[in-house]
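User: Please fill in residues for this 82-position structure.
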């Protein structure tokens, strides 16, 4: 591969088309009492999954974070996992 044939960096690392957020598709809200579903948006250490893991849009990521925090407060979800 010659130097001239090389593509510029922006084209080399093309972004994959982002999957739309699960809550945007189904138009549903996350219930903080539904702990098995809330746990999907937590890491194995008990942290709230970042957007790159959860795949949520900004609006629904905030909703997820709120649901996890509520679940923690009523004792359904852990604050930390050792
Ligand atoms: Zn969304």
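Assistant: Residues filled in for all 82 positions:
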């Amino acid at each position: 591969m010659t130097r001239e044939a090389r593509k510029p960096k922006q084209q080399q690392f093309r972004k994959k088309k982002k999957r739309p957020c699960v809550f945007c598709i189904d138009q549903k809200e996350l219930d903080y009492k539904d702990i098995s579903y809330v746990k999907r948006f937590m890491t194995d250490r008990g942290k709230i999954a970042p957007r790159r893991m959860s795949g949520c849009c900004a609006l629904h990521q905030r909703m997820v974070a709120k649901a996890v925090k509520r679940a923690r407060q009523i004792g359904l979800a852990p604050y930390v996992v050792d």
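For context: The domain at 17-73 is CATH 4.10.640.10 (30s Ribosomal Protein S18).
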